Amino acid sequence: MPSRTHSNDKEAPLRRRSTATSRRTNTRRLTIKELPLDSRPREKLATYGAAALSEAELLGIVLRTGTQGENVVDLANHLLESYSGLGGLARASFADLLRMRGLGAAKVCQLLASLELATRLARSQTRQRVQVLTPEDLAPELMLDMGRLDHEVLRVVILDTKCRVLGATDLYRGTVESASLRVPELFKEAVRANATSLVLAHNHPSGDPTPSPEDLEVTKQAVNAGRLLQIEVLDHLVIGERSFLSLRRMHPDLFA
C-alpha cells in the first residue's frame, strides 16, 4: 500500500502536464475573418490609420494570407522574431526568406519590395538636406544604404565649395585594404566635377563601426593625396548597422 500511494503521487503531476500539453496542442488559432472587426489589420487601418497598427499587423497586410493553423499576423510575428525585427528582415536575402515556412516566391517579393520602398522613402527625405556641415548631415543616408550590406563598400561623396553634395560613387566592394587601394581612383570623380572636397565612407558588415588599423591607413593615404590635388578629405565615416563613427572626431591627427 505505501508503495502504491507513492507511485500515484508521481503519476499525478505527469497526467496534469500531459493534459495541459494536449490543451495547448489542440488550441486553434483564430483566422483573420474570425477576429472582431476592429482587430483585423485592414479594417483597423481604414478606421484608425496606418500609425495605429503594430509592425506585425502592417507586415500582415503586405503578406495578405497566413498558413494552415497560423493567421497572417501570427506569421508576421514569427518573421519579426526570427529576424530580430524589421532591420533583420531588410538584410535577409530572397533565398533566406524563401526557406521560411509560409513564404512562397510571391510573398517574398511583396515583402522585399515593401522594405525597399521604405528605404527609398527615408533616403529621399534625407537628401533634402544637401549641405554637409557635420557628419550627422550625411550619416543617416549612408546608414540606410550601407548599414545592412553583407559586404564592404567604399563610397566617395564629393562636395562643392559650400559643402553641398555633388554626387557619390562606390569604388570598392569587398575588403577595403590599403594594399589594394588605388588612391588616385578616390579623386577621379572629384577632379572631373571640379569638387573642392570629399568625404569617404565605408561600412562594416559586422555592424560594429569600430575602425581597424587598415581604415586609419587608408584615411592617411587619402588625406595626403588630397593635399597634393588641393581636394580636401573632410572626413572618413565608418558605417555600422545602427551607428557610425567619424574618424576626424576620433583621430583628428590624421587630418591635421
Protein architecture, described:
A 5-stranded mixed beta sheet has the order 2-1-3-4-5, with helices on both faces. Helix content is 49%, strand content 13%. The chain starts with a helix and ends in a 6-residue tail after the last helix. The longest helix is centred in the N-terminal third of the chain and has 25 residues, at 2-26. Helix 3 (55-63) packs across helix 4 (72-82), helix 7 (105-126) runs antiparallel to helix 8 and helix 9 packs across helix 10 (213-229). It has helices at 2-26, 41-48, 55-63, 72-82, 86-91, 94-98, 105-126, 139-146, 183-192, 213-229, 247-250; strands at 153-159, 165-173, 197-203, 232-239, 244-246. Helix 10 links the parallel strand 3 and strand 4. It has 256 residues and is α+β, with helices and mostly antiparallel strands. The model is unreliable at 1-26 (pLDDT under 50).
Task: List key phrases describing it.
disordered N terminus, 13% strand, 256 residues, 11 helices, alpha+beta, 49% helix, 5-stranded mixed beta sheet, elongated
Helices and strands in order:
Elements lengths: L1 H25 L14 H8 L6 H9 L8 H11 L3 H6 L2 H5 L6 H22 L12 H8 L6 E7 L5 E9 L9 H10 L4 E7 L9 H17 L2 E8 L4 E3 H4 L6
Parallel strand pairs: 3-4
Antiparallel strand pairs: 1-2, 1-3, 4-5
Helix pairs in contact: 3-4, 7-8, 9-10
Count of helix runs: 11
Order of helices and strands: HHHHHHHHEEHEHEEH
Number of strands: 5
Described by strand count, sense and barrel closure, the largest sheet is:
5 strands, mixed
Gross morphology: elongated
**How far is it from the N-terminal to the C-terminal residue, by CA?**
91 Å
Rounded to the nearest angstrom, the radius of gyration is: 27 Å
Strand content: 5-15%
Mean pLDDT: 84
